[in-house]
Inverse folding.
């Protein structure tokens, strides 16, 4: 990350240049309920731990700037709007390739560094435009699929949507689960569904959106996380961004504890993506602190951690500009596209 020497940030990014598509979760050969069925989650304890995480660790000055640069490399820059067009996607991809201005990178001492976002995420029909715009950049194209955001279309159609996006060039697929399977505790059905989706992804990474705001309890969040990972999810993700409650730290804590437990039991590595409701640089720091404290530095890299929060990028730019110049710029100077 950043070396706190004067106003120079040295080599904030090279550690993040990991082998993204070499990390895959093989899952388990069959559903293994004994890994999760007797686990209880204490809501008060989870809320207390989440609240104290961001107060026990203070990230200031040059170190804070370094963490914010790292956060940029973990952002899935996203547009999921009904008015998306090829031109809008191209502009978003241009921002993904160059999230910071040349002047700001120079002021941070990073003029020689290549800084990009972690991925660009779009609807399946927008994938070809993103693939073309990002050609040669090394930035993955992610696509939502499986009847996003509700996930209530028939399974054959959801699987066909995955294959469509992969055939169009998507490197990552963000799927949504059937929440009914969680609410009714039908874990075999959830396992079979996510396993079928993983097979439909082929070489593409699968990020399983649990829609945690819809599945009622932290115990359900833990169990759904475990089942999705057993079925082969390479990432587990909090939300679609469309629920009444999206990414909150107690839910994130529960999910990363599930990742830790699953890793200890299976030896597999699974990534984590909070999404929805995050808008500020402070939010980015809070999630990075959670990952650092609970899973370690390796889970602050884009191969294991993503932030589903495009509007956050503008505030991160403003904070970095303040660090470099001592002045805050107007938010309109940092448009996404």
């Amino acid at each position: 990350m950043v070396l706190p020497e004067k106003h120079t940030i040295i080599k904030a990014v090279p550690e993040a240049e990991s082998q993204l598509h070499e990390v895959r979760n093989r899952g388990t050969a069959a559903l293994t309920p004994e890994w999760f069925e007797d686990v209880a989650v204490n809501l008060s304890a989870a809320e207390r731990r989440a609240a104290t995480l961001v107060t026990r660790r203070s990230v200031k000055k040059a170190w804070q700037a370094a963490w914010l640069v790292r956060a940029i490399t973990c952002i899935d820059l996203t547009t999921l709007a009904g008015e998306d067009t090829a031109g809008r996607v191209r502009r978003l991809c241009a921002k993904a390739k160059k999230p910071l201005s040349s002047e700001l990178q120079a002021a941070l001492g990073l003029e020689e560094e290549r800084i990009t976002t972690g991925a660009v995420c779009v609807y399946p029909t927008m994938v070809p435009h993103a693939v073309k715009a990002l050609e040669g950049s090394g930035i993955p194209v992610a696509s939502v699929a499986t009847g996003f955001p509700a996930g209530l279309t028939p399974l054959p159609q959801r699987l066909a949507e995955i294959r469509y996006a992969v055939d169009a060039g998507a490197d990552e697929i963000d799927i949504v689960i059937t929440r009914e399977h969680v609410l009714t505790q039908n874990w075999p059905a959830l396992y079979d569904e996510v396993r079928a989706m993983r097979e439909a992804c082929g070489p593409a990474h699968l990020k399983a959106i649990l829609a945690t705001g819809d599945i009622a309890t932290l115990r359900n969040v833990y169990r759904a996380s475990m089942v999705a990972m057993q079925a082969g999810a390479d990432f587990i993700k909090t939300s679609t961004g469309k629920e009444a409650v999206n990414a909150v730290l107690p839910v994130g804590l529960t999910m990363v504890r599930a990742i830790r437990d699953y890793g200890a039991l299976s030896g597999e590595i699974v990534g984590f993506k909070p999404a929805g409701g995050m808008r500020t640089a402070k939010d980015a720091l809070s999630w990075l602190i959670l990952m650092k404290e609970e899973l370690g530095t390796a889970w602050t890299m884009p191969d294991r951690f993503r932030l589903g929060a495009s509007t956050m990028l503008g505030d991160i730019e403003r904070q970095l500009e303040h660090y470099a110049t001592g002045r805050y710029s107007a938010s309109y100077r940092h448009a996404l596209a």
